[in-house]
């Protein structure tokens, strides 16, 4: 039995088109985090756009974004799609629909416990534990010592310091206790109020029982029967999975709800939402990114295999080619050829979210701008050259210089916008 389709596939396609026209894109964020084909359902697009709009408005916690009727009109979609989008936001702790005469979509500050839950789901969906090996723990501890430890030369605000300490605590707990040390599902009661959230957590329990990618969980009718849910409630729960990229409803005989390996965009945006609500500054996150990337690239210089060195040489050839622009695809390949050597999903997501955070405040949104092209190409070639020579000292210095130059470009654009 196949996954039941909406009453009108054409109407959903037209709703996606309507929603997409409203979007104010941040292509530099997408280039950094690797925005891909996930989240193509109308409800997923709406939820992402609301979060991006709130980041741009410095996260007005406690205000009402709009009523259900207002959201239907604003995005040009039906009520069921709006409710699916709201369930996504509620699952992430970024908003909640408040009923009553003065009700509407209430903006919330996402909690650290929900962020940790989302990170755990992302990492374990990559068929790995939260702490895969020694590299992730080593990098986090080194960064902590240099950023906020005794005698630290760097200085960041308390919100980012707390974020890093919570991350280290979660990794240490998992290292000590194994799977029982994971952040438990349902740790935050506020996120499990609705029936859809309860179904989502039952689906996650089934997903955690097997890490096989492209595994079929069942058709819509199968799942409704299994969990005792009506179709609308099940679809709301499924949209949360699709938004995170953990699963996707696929039409066709023998298909249905299929497991997937998630892309990092949704999780990076959630962490950026947390940073914004906590009033973390772009300069603080860039300080954290600099230290994370220097520690990671230093380990990569020591651990790179012959196959990984060959990939680095290919990225070097691309960047040396004068007629090749630094497109998002080229940028992603160059970054992954360097930091993919570590093969730590947790480190990877922290690098992406901290690097991308400042893009929301900068007027530099075009990943193919001439200034960015010149700086990125020049500095990345220096990093790759040092990696190929396995020179740990040189690669650390080159990465630090690269971050400083890119940070200067982005933050100068930020100051220009603020002036």
TrEMBL record:
**Cited PROSITE patterns:** HTH_GNTR
Q: Which Gene3D superfamilies match?
A: Winged helix-like DNA-binding domain superfamily/Winged helix DNA-binding domain
Q: Report the domain of life of the source organism.
A: Bacteria
Residue ranges occupied by any HTH gntR-type domain in the UniProt entry: 40-110
Q: Does the keyword Transcription apply?
A: yes
Q: Which InterPro entries match?
A: Tscrpt_reg_HTH_GntR, WH-like_DNA-bd_sf, WH_DNA-bd_sf
Q: Which SUPFAM superfamilies match?
A: Winged helix' DNA-binding domain
Keywords noted in UniProt: DNA-binding, Transcription, Transcription regulation
MF-aspect GO terms = DNA binding
Q: SMART domains given for it?
A: HTH_GNTR
The name under which this protein is listed is: DNA-binding FadR family transcriptional regulator
State the organism of origin.
Herbaspirillum frisingense
Which classification does the entry list for the species? Answer: Bacteria, Pseudomonadati, Pseudomonadota, Betaproteobacteria, Burkholderiales
């Amino acid at each position: 039995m196949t996954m039941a389709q909406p009453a009108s596939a054409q109407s959903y396609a037209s709703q996606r088109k309507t929603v997409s026209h409203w979007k104010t894109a941040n292509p530099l964020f997408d280039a950094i985090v690797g925005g891909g084909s996930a989240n193509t359902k109308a409800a997923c697009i709406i939820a992402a756009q609301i979060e991006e709009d709130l980041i741009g408005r410095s996260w007005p916690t406690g205000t009402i974004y709009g009523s259900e009727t207002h959201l239907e009109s604003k995005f040009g979609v039906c009520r069921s799609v709006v409710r699916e989008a709201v369930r996504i936001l509620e699952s992430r702790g970024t908003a909640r629909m408040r009923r009553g005469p003065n009700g509407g979509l209430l903006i919330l500050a996402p909690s650290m416990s929900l962020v940790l839950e989302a990170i755990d789901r992302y990492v374990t969906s990559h068929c790995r534990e939260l702490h895969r090996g020694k590299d992730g723990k080593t990098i986090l501890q080194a960064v902590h010592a240099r950023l906020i430890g005794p005698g630290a030369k760097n200085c960041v605000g308390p919100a980012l310091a707390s974020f890093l300490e919570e991350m280290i605590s979660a990794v240490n707990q998992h290292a000590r206790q194994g799977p029982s040390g994971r952040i438990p599902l349902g740790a935050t009661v506020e996120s499990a109020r609705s029936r859809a959230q309860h179904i989502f957590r039952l689906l996650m329990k089934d997903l955690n029982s097997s890490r096989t990618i492209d595994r079929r969980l069942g058709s819509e009718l199968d799942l409704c029967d299994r969990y005792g849910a009506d179709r609308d409630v099940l679809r709301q729960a499924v949209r949360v999975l699709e938004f995170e990229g953990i699963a996707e409803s696929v039409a066709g005989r023998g298909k249905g709800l299929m497991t997937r390996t998630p892309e990092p965009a949704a999780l990076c945006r959630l962490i950026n939402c947390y940073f914004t609500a906590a009033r973390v500054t772009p300069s603080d996150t860039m300080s954290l990114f600099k230290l994370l990337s220097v520690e990671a690239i230093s380990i990569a210089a020591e651990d790179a295999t012959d196959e990984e060195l060959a990939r680095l040489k290919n990225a070097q050839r691309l960047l040396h080619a004068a007629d090749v622009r630094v497109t998002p695809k080229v940028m992603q390949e160059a970054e992954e050829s360097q930091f993919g050597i570590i093969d730590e999903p947790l480190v990877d997501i922290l690098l992406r979210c901290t690097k991308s955070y400042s893009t929301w405040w900068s007027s530099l949104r075009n990943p193919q701008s001439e200034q960015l092209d010149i700086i990125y190409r020049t500095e990345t070639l220096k990093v790759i050259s040092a990696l190929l020579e396995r020179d740990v000292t040189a690669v650390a210095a080159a990465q630090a210089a690269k971050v400083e130059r890119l940070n200067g470009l982005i933050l100068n654009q930020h100051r220009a916008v603020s002036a």
